[in-house]
């Protein structure tokens, strides 16, 4: 079996690593920068940290912050069209997954004849137009590492990933100072999203030795730091480890791919606008419990890599321990576990089942095939 993995060309990490942005600008000889962010990042002063560097260097820039969480493809097209009139030569995204996904789309759309909708139908036509720098301000989407961009499709009441190697970021800055003041609820949701990435990638049918390396490294960092990062806002070491683990999860995605957790969460985001990390967290343990008999050996190996000093011996016990830890993390970080809290009703069940079953790009990665009845039963577990 041959295999590959894709990774951004240059990655800077550690608290204070934002200082490397000056060297990147000089290296790329950039004169005008397109910055994608959101109003929350601007209000918290994180954008100023970045733009102060450009002001010192007399580098021109324009900020586009009219971005909403979980954007529809029409939202992405609107913001990218606004940036079309600015003759920028480099794109920087400072924000969460939605901000970075739109920036990556802009990197292949600016000056091109195709649209976001065209890429939904045929992502192979995308070609890189501008280089990108990703600065994540959450600790979980992994978007800074992937060639994926996720958008909602309102007419289908679901979400879909646009995947093309040309969207792999060129530079990444993993500066834990940018997540130091992150609200606990966002630490929880994005952290569990990152945990889903590494566990799903490790148990995916498409897992390879390369993706396994990153998935296991990410699993160690996330399992062992997410509670501390959630409990103590000033624990910069835990935050840094979580940020790095999330990046590893993104890299693992490029070599392996997520599975049924993400597949079944997409309709929840597309129809009910439940935050991506939250919808994953709600389903995570239930999907892994369903998958357990098909990937018990992989879960046991993950246990061996992550957990030490716990008196668990059999393969089955190790697999169950990992699933129980996932459920406990969701519980202790106070993520909701019932879809009814988001207005989902049992009469919506069949719509969810149909939409979930269409996520074949991800479902084909799952080690255990899901029938419509299987999907229905998983949703019922979170419709209490």
Automatic annotation (TrEMBL):
Q: Which PROSITE patterns match?
A: ADH_IRON_1
Which InterPro entries does UniProt cross-reference here?
ADH_Fe/GldA, ADH_Fe_C, ADH_Fe_CS, Alcohol_dehydrogenase_Fe
What range(s) does the Fe-containing alcohol dehydrogenase-like C-terminal domain occupy? Answer: 188-381
What keywords were assigned to this record? Oxidoreductase
Q: Has UniProt tagged this entry with the keyword Nucleotide-binding?
A: no
Q: Which SUPFAM superfamilies does the entry mention?
A: Dehydroquinate synthase-like
Q: Where does the Alcohol dehydrogenase iron-type/glycerol dehydrogenase GldA domain start and stop, copy by copy? A: 8-175
Could you confirm whether the keyword Oxidoreductase appears in this record? yes
Against PANTHER family, the record matches this protein to: ALCOHOL DEHYDROGENASE, HYDROXYACID-OXOACID TRANSHYDROGENASE, MITOCHONDRIAL
* Protein known as: Iron-containing alcohol dehydrogenase
């Amino acid at each position: 079996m041959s295999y590959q993995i894709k990774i951004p060309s240059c990655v800077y990490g550690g608290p204070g690593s934002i200082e490397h942005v000056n060297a990147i600008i000089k290296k790329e000889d950039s004169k005008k920068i397109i910055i994608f962010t959101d109003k929350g990042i601007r209000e918290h002063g994180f954008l100023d940290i970045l733009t102060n560097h450009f002001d010192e260097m007399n580098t021109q820039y324009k900020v586009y912050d009219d971005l909403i969480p979980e954007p529809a493809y029409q939202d992405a097209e609107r913001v990218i069209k606004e940036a079309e009139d600015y003759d920028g030569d480099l794109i920087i995204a400072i924000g969460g997954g939605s901000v970075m996904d739109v920036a990556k789309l802009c990197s292949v759309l600016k000056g091109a004849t195709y649209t976001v909708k065209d890429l939904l139908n045929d992502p192979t036509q995308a070609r890189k137009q501008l280089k990108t720098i990703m600065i994540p301000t959450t600790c979980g989407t992994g978007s800074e590492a992937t060639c994926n961009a996720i958008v909602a499709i309102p007419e289908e009441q679901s979400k879909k990933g646009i995947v093309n190697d040309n969207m792999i970021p060129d530079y990444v800055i993993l500066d834990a100072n940018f997540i130091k003041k992150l609200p606990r609820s966002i630490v929880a949701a994005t952290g569990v999203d990152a945990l889903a990435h590494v566990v799903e990638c490790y148990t995916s049918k498409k897992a390879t030795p390369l993706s396994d390396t990153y998935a296991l490294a990410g699993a160690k960092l996330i399992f062992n730091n997410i509670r501390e990062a959630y409990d103590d806002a000033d624990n910069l070491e835990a935050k840094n480890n979580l940020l790095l683990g999330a990046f590893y999860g993104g890299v693992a995605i490029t070599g392996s791919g997520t599975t049924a957790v993400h597949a079944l969460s997409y309709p929840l985001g597309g129809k009910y606008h439940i935050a991506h990390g939250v919808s994953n967290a709600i389903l995570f343990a239930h999907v892994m419990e369903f998958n357990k008999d098909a990937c018990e050996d992989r879960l046991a190996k993950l246990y061996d890599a992550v957990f030490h000093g716990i008196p668990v011996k059999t393969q089955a016990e190790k697999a169950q321990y990992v699933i129980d830890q996932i459920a406990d993390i969701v519980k202790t970080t106070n993520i909701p576990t019932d879809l009814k809290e988001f207005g989902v009703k049992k009469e919506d069940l069949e719509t969810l089942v149909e939409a979930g079953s269409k996520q074949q790009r991800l479902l084909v990665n799952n080690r255990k095939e899901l029938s419509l009845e299987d999907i229905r039963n998983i949703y019922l577990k979170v419709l209490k």
